[in-house]
Amino acid sequence: MKTLYLLRHAKSSWSFDELSDQERPLNDRGRTDAPRMGQALCKREIELDLLVSSPAVRALSTAVLVAREIGYPHEKIVVERNIYEASVEDILSIIHQLPDSAQSVMLVGHNPTFTDVVNTLGSAGTTPLLEMPTAAVACLRFECERWEEVSRENAEFYFYDFPKDGK
User: Fold this and answer.
1) For 88-126, b where at least 16 C-beta lie within 10 A, e where not — what string?
2) Which residues form a coiled coil (predicted)?
């Protein structure tokens, strides 16, 4: 069985006009929500074999903050440039090329693509997500041995979570 976590980056700042989209940092809420989601994942006792992030500052910062909470070494985070501005097909290609030695993988990236990937892979009968809010995570499990076999047909939508005010 393979387990995939798709984590949308936490809330980013639009306060710096001089920065490119890729350079935008997290804002105060993002710096609060990312660890909060890491703590929620820690309560679920998840253990990652691999954490892969978009190179965008907001995504990589989210990955580091979540990794810290779940005990994943931040120096082992893999930066995958193709997650940034990826299409659904690009993300599926990245998933299909993941190392089979990794049973549990988290990708950290962007919307609307991550919502679309969840809806594309989500098991039949699952209510489609309208939009993953910032710092939301969706977990899918796949009844297969190799990542290249991941598909809607062998998928199980396991859980979905996002930061809630006051939690």
Assistant:
1) bebbbebbeebeeeeebbbbbbbeebbbbbbbbbbeeeb
2) none
Provide the whole-model pTM. Answer: 0.94
Phi and psi at residue 138, in whole multiples of 5°? -120, 140
Closest alpha carbon to 133 in 118, 150, 152? 118
Domains and CATH numbers, the chain: 2-127 (3.40.50.1240)
- Nearest one of 146, 142, 86, 95 to 116, comparing CA atoms: 86
The first and second tokens of residue 93, run together, are 């290609």
3-state secondary structure of 102: coil
Tokens of 44: 């679920």
Tokens representing residue 106 in the block = 């988290």
Residue 55, both tokens: 């190179």
What is the mean predicted confidence (pLDDT) over 105-110?
98
Residue 161: in which H helix or E strand, if any?
strand 155-161
pLDDT average, residue stretch 54-62: 98
